[in-house]
């Protein structure tokens, strides 16, 4: 391709950049403080760093962005004022939801409250029309009544409208006509149709997903337009501009602006993508990813080199029926605040200091103690060598923050308080890892922990030991690893169509005909985005269930030539059901619930760079020694510069390994080996 690939992952504290020279294959990185009020400002700062090295704007041939704009709007309740249109008689679907509280800890929470609805009942309108279960029209759309309803919404200042009619995934014409009328009556209003966003069964999940898209779409569209204008003004005019999606693939700026709901896991998805590539290159196929940044911690499980993709999930208790990485997120980051409440109980999180004012030690106005402040006091972080020496940390301000808000009120020593705070946050993150592993039947002794993000490698050694894991794999550019994943991502579009039919007796030609229609749309979409046929991969899957079940399993399928292939699909479903639930019902009939197509536009791959030993010694990387606190004891600890550690070197903990983008802490009793990719392989000494 030539030129430079530029990727950026916007975090709560820092925005991480990766620059790949496609001619030489060389990679460089940078970090700049995030600008939460307008993330595009930080992005332009990162672009300016590359241009300051003599690169011309027209040499930027590819740009990809992992964004939290949509996620933050959803979590903070700062989306667009949204109206909802439903079939007459079904306005209660949104409020009723699944008629039950979620599974897990919420079952035991006597104070549990459902999330407040995004759309208020007063902004929900009923539409006179009716389509029945087979897609036939029982009652035509009453357009006059619809215009009266829209007049009411217009009077309440609605910015976006979600439309979710009964069985519209079988007959979308009524929703399409409603969009035409909305554009006439509310010309400045965005419209999201359930028949386009998520055309599948289960009314509540389809409605919830469409509402979230309508809520986020104007926010994402404005942000993407502003970012595109700023890139254009900076001279970055490449047509290959992408946003990371929750499914681990990318989409164009234009596609993302129409379907903002696909970005709710945009940020952490890049890290999982990079982790999959690392699993394949290193041979460690069973991995738990551990992404700890400034405001949150995201964990995911990779088994046999493959991440878990869910067709449905929750974000902050809100249901989204879209393919997404199965990522568990907790409020635990370097900026997480610790303080003593009015009952004299130490609370760690969920509030974060974020980028502004940030931890107290950043000297930007923060006064409350954070995890970063504690790590500095314990000796894990360097006062002088943070961000390669570009940013100085203030130990005295960190000490004052911990003393004032935690140690003093509890009558503790400052270092004891700091160590206790770190232990609490570690337990929270360990519980997040258990939720996706041991609680699902996986044995963590078989898994390596792959830490990344600015704070991940600081905490990973302790967490891996506490959980009894096989060890750690700390990547070379751990601090910007999510941005590295954006370099490796392909463009991905997911298509789904629900149509309840019996698998038993279905012919291969019937199934192929349905898939052909979906694949035709997929090929057309990717061709419009510039992908030739030989750079497109199509994957098929079926959602299957035993007749009468209330849930289904997604089964990947290959080419269907005859009845034998259809029988093989049935056998694959039985086998998957037995693996998931411990039993199968080979004598029961099986139903097809939904057809799924994943279309992948293949971007030229980036291979992991292998390094040859250069003859460097451990002394070449040695920076000095400093006291570091482990388990209540201050130990004289060796400090090494990561960039100078040569392939094949081995050393023992306790140790601290510093690099530009993060710091890795090695515990006493652990050993480190530098592999051919310059990953740090950390294991317990036998």
Automatic annotation (TrEMBL):
Residues 5-185 form the Hydantoinase/oxoprolinase N-terminal domain. InterPro entries: ACX-like_C (IPR049517), Hydant_A_N (IPR008040), Hydantoinase_A (IPR002821), Oxoprolinase-like (IPR045079). The lineage of its organism: Bacteria, Pseudomonadati, Pseudomonadota, Alphaproteobacteria, Hyphomicrobiales. It holds the Pfam family Hydantoinase_A. Residues 206-494 form the Hydantoinase A/oxoprolinase domain. Residues 506-680 form the Acetophenone carboxylase-like C-terminal domain. This is Hydantoinase/oxoprolinase family protein.
